Protein backbone atom coordinates (compact mmCIF):
# COMPACT_ATOMS: atom_id res chain seq x y z
CA UNK A 1 0.00 0.00 0.00
CA UNK A 2 2.78 2.41 0.92
CA UNK A 3 4.71 1.45 -2.22
CA UNK A 4 1.69 2.20 -4.43
CA UNK A 5 1.21 5.56 -2.73
CA UNK A 6 4.89 6.40 -3.21
CA UNK A 7 4.74 5.48 -6.91
CA UNK A 8 1.60 7.59 -7.35
CA UNK A 9 3.16 10.61 -5.63
CA UNK A 10 6.33 10.34 -7.73
CA UNK A 11 4.35 10.04 -10.97
CA UNK A 12 2.28 13.12 -10.09
CA UNK A 13 5.39 15.03 -9.06
CA UNK A 14 7.20 14.35 -12.33
CA UNK A 15 4.18 14.49 -14.67
CA UNK A 16 4.63 18.22 -15.19
CA UNK A 17 7.60 17.41 -17.41
CA UNK A 18 5.36 15.53 -19.83
CA UNK A 19 3.21 18.62 -20.35
CA UNK A 20 6.17 20.89 -21.08
CA UNK A 21 6.28 22.47 -24.52
CA UNK A 22 9.29 23.78 -26.36
CA UNK A 23 9.97 27.47 -25.88
CA UNK A 24 11.17 29.81 -28.58
CA UNK A 25 14.31 31.59 -27.47
CA UNK A 26 14.28 34.48 -29.90
CA UNK A 27 15.43 37.78 -28.39
CA UNK A 28 13.47 40.80 -29.52
CA UNK A 29 14.80 44.31 -29.81
CA UNK A 30 12.03 45.60 -27.54
CA UNK A 31 9.17 44.33 -25.38
CA UNK A 32 6.71 46.06 -27.74
CA UNK A 33 8.05 44.04 -30.68
CA UNK A 34 7.66 40.87 -28.65
CA UNK A 35 4.01 41.64 -27.85
CA UNK A 36 3.28 42.47 -31.52
CA UNK A 37 4.98 39.30 -32.76
CA UNK A 38 3.14 37.10 -30.28
CA UNK A 39 -0.19 38.73 -31.16
CA UNK A 40 0.47 38.16 -34.87
CA UNK A 41 1.51 34.56 -34.29
CA UNK A 42 -1.76 34.02 -32.38
CA UNK A 43 -3.72 35.36 -35.39
CA UNK A 44 -2.00 33.13 -37.96
CA UNK A 45 -2.95 29.48 -38.48
CA UNK A 46 -0.41 26.70 -38.83
CA UNK A 47 -0.56 25.36 -42.41
CA UNK A 48 0.24 21.83 -41.26
CA UNK A 49 -1.93 21.51 -38.14
CA UNK A 50 -4.88 23.48 -39.55
CA UNK A 51 -6.62 23.83 -36.20
CA UNK A 52 -3.90 25.57 -34.19
CA UNK A 53 -2.29 28.94 -34.40
CA UNK A 54 1.46 29.35 -34.78
CA UNK A 55 1.99 29.72 -31.03
CA UNK A 56 0.08 26.58 -30.04
CA UNK A 57 1.48 24.35 -32.77
CA UNK A 58 4.61 22.26 -32.27
CA UNK A 59 5.07 21.38 -35.93
CA UNK A 60 8.37 22.29 -37.62
CA UNK A 61 6.64 24.59 -40.12
CA UNK A 62 4.96 26.50 -37.29
CA UNK A 63 8.32 26.95 -35.60
CA UNK A 64 9.80 28.28 -38.84
CA UNK A 65 6.87 30.63 -39.40
CA UNK A 66 7.03 31.92 -35.82
CA UNK A 67 10.70 32.69 -36.35
CA UNK A 68 9.89 34.40 -39.66
CA UNK A 69 7.20 36.54 -37.98
CA UNK A 70 9.60 37.43 -35.15
CA UNK A 71 12.33 38.47 -37.60
CA UNK A 72 9.92 40.53 -39.71
CA UNK A 73 8.60 42.37 -36.64
CA UNK A 74 12.14 43.14 -35.49
CA UNK A 75 13.01 44.25 -39.04
CA UNK A 76 10.38 46.98 -38.69
CA UNK A 77 7.66 45.61 -40.97
CA UNK A 78 4.12 46.49 -39.96
CA UNK A 79 1.36 43.97 -39.30
CA UNK A 80 -0.25 44.39 -42.73
CA UNK A 81 3.03 43.68 -44.51
CA UNK A 82 3.60 40.53 -42.44
CA UNK A 83 0.06 39.28 -43.02
CA UNK A 84 0.36 40.04 -46.74
CA UNK A 85 3.60 38.06 -46.89
CA UNK A 86 2.02 35.08 -45.12
CA UNK A 87 -1.14 35.10 -47.25
CA UNK A 88 0.81 35.46 -50.49
CA UNK A 89 2.87 32.43 -49.50
CA UNK A 90 0.19 30.23 -47.85
CA UNK A 91 -3.11 31.72 -49.02
CA UNK A 92 -6.01 33.11 -47.00
CA UNK A 93 -6.18 29.80 -45.14
CA UNK A 94 -3.38 30.98 -42.85
CA UNK A 95 -5.70 33.66 -41.40
CA UNK A 96 -7.98 32.67 -38.53
CA UNK A 97 -10.23 35.63 -39.34
CA UNK A 98 -10.45 35.73 -43.15
CA UNK A 99 -10.89 39.04 -44.89
CA UNK A 100 -14.30 40.00 -46.26
CA UNK A 101 -13.83 39.67 -50.02
CA UNK A 102 -15.88 38.35 -52.92
CA UNK A 103 -14.35 34.91 -52.29
CA UNK A 104 -15.36 34.89 -48.62
CA UNK A 105 -18.89 36.33 -48.78
CA UNK A 106 -20.36 32.84 -48.46
CA UNK A 107 -18.16 32.24 -45.42
CA UNK A 108 -19.27 35.42 -43.68
CA UNK A 109 -22.88 35.60 -44.85
CA UNK A 110 -23.64 31.86 -45.01
CA UNK A 111 -24.47 31.37 -41.32
CA UNK A 112 -26.70 34.46 -41.29
CA UNK A 113 -28.52 33.28 -44.42
CA UNK A 114 -28.99 29.77 -42.98
CA UNK A 115 -30.38 31.26 -39.77
CA UNK A 116 -32.78 33.49 -41.73
CA UNK A 117 -33.87 30.53 -43.87
CA UNK A 118 -34.43 28.40 -40.75
CA UNK A 119 -36.50 31.15 -39.13
CA UNK A 120 -38.57 31.56 -42.30
CA UNK A 121 -39.25 27.82 -42.55
CA UNK A 122 -40.13 27.69 -38.85
CA UNK A 123 -42.47 30.67 -39.20
CA UNK A 124 -44.25 29.10 -42.18
CA UNK A 125 -44.54 25.75 -40.40
CA UNK A 126 -45.98 27.28 -37.21
CA UNK A 127 -48.37 29.45 -39.21
CA UNK A 128 -49.70 26.44 -41.14
CA UNK A 129 -50.18 24.54 -37.90
CA UNK A 130 -52.16 27.41 -36.37
CA UNK A 131 -54.33 27.84 -39.46
CA UNK A 132 -55.11 24.12 -39.50
CA UNK A 133 -55.89 24.11 -35.77
CA UNK A 134 -58.18 27.15 -36.01
CA UNK A 135 -60.12 26.06 -39.09
CA UNK A 136 -63.09 23.94 -38.04
CA UNK A 137 -63.36 20.84 -40.12
CA UNK A 138 -66.78 20.73 -41.79
CA UNK A 139 -68.30 17.35 -42.50
CA UNK A 140 -69.96 16.69 -45.81
CA UNK A 141 -73.54 15.45 -45.89
CA UNK A 142 -72.35 11.95 -46.69
CA UNK A 143 -70.00 11.97 -43.71
CA UNK A 144 -72.77 13.26 -41.43
CA UNK A 145 -75.12 10.50 -42.59
CA UNK A 146 -72.42 7.86 -42.09
CA UNK A 147 -71.67 9.22 -38.61
CA UNK A 148 -75.37 9.16 -37.67
CA UNK A 149 -75.65 5.56 -38.90
CA UNK A 150 -72.63 4.52 -36.83
CA UNK A 151 -73.98 6.26 -33.74
CA UNK A 152 -77.38 4.59 -34.18
CA UNK A 153 -75.81 1.16 -34.62
CA UNK A 154 -73.71 1.69 -31.49
CA UNK A 155 -76.77 2.82 -29.56
CA UNK A 156 -78.71 -0.28 -30.70
CA UNK A 157 -75.83 -2.55 -29.66
CA UNK A 158 -75.70 -0.89 -26.25
CA UNK A 159 -79.49 -1.33 -25.82
CA UNK A 160 -79.19 -5.03 -26.83
CA UNK A 161 -76.37 -5.60 -24.32
CA UNK A 162 -78.34 -3.98 -21.48
CA UNK A 163 -81.30 -6.36 -21.89
Automatic annotation (TrEMBL):
<comment type="function">
    <text>Possible subunit of a heme lyase.</text>
</comment>
<keyword id="KW-0732">Signal</keyword>
<dbReference type="Pfam" id="PF03918">
    <property type="entry name" value="CcmH"/>
</dbReference>
<dbReference type="GO" id="GO:0016829">
    <property type="term" value="F:lyase activity"/>
</dbReference>
<keyword id="KW-0408">Iron</keyword>
<keyword id="KW-0349">Heme</keyword>
<dbReference type="GO" id="GO:0046872">
    <property type="term" value="F:metal ion binding"/>
</dbReference>
<protein>
    <recommendedName>
        <fullName>Formate-dependent nitrite reductase complex subunit</fullName>
    </recommendedName>
</protein>
<feature type="signal peptide">
    <location>
        <begin position="1"/>
        <end position="20"/>
    </location>
</feature>
<dbReference type="InterPro" id="IPR051263">
    <property type="entry name" value="C-type_cytochrome_biogenesis"/>
</dbReference>
<keyword id="KW-0479">Metal-binding</keyword>
<feature type="transmembrane region" description="Helical">
    <location>
        <begin position="105"/>
        <end position="126"/>
    </location>
</feature>
<dbReference type="InterPro" id="IPR017565">
    <property type="entry name" value="For-dep_Cytc_NO2Rdtase_NrfF"/>
</dbReference>
<dbReference type="InterPro" id="IPR005616">
    <property type="entry name" value="CcmH/CycL/Ccl2/NrfF_N"/>
</dbReference>
<comment type="similarity">
    <text>Belongs to the CcmH/CycL/Ccl2/NrfF family.</text>
</comment>
<dbReference type="GO" id="GO:0005886">
    <property type="term" value="C:plasma membrane"/>
</dbReference>
<keyword id="KW-0472">Membrane</keyword>
<keyword id="KW-0456">Lyase</keyword>
<keyword id="KW-1133">Transmembrane helix</keyword>
<keyword id="KW-0812">Transmembrane</keyword>
<dbReference type="InterPro" id="IPR038297">
    <property type="entry name" value="CcmH/CycL/NrfF/Ccl2_sf"/>
</dbReference>
<dbReference type="GO" id="GO:0017004">
    <property type="term" value="P:cytochrome complex assembly"/>
</dbReference>
<feature type="domain" description="CcmH/CycL/Ccl2/NrfF N-terminal">
    <location>
        <begin position="9"/>
        <end position="151"/>
    </location>
</feature>
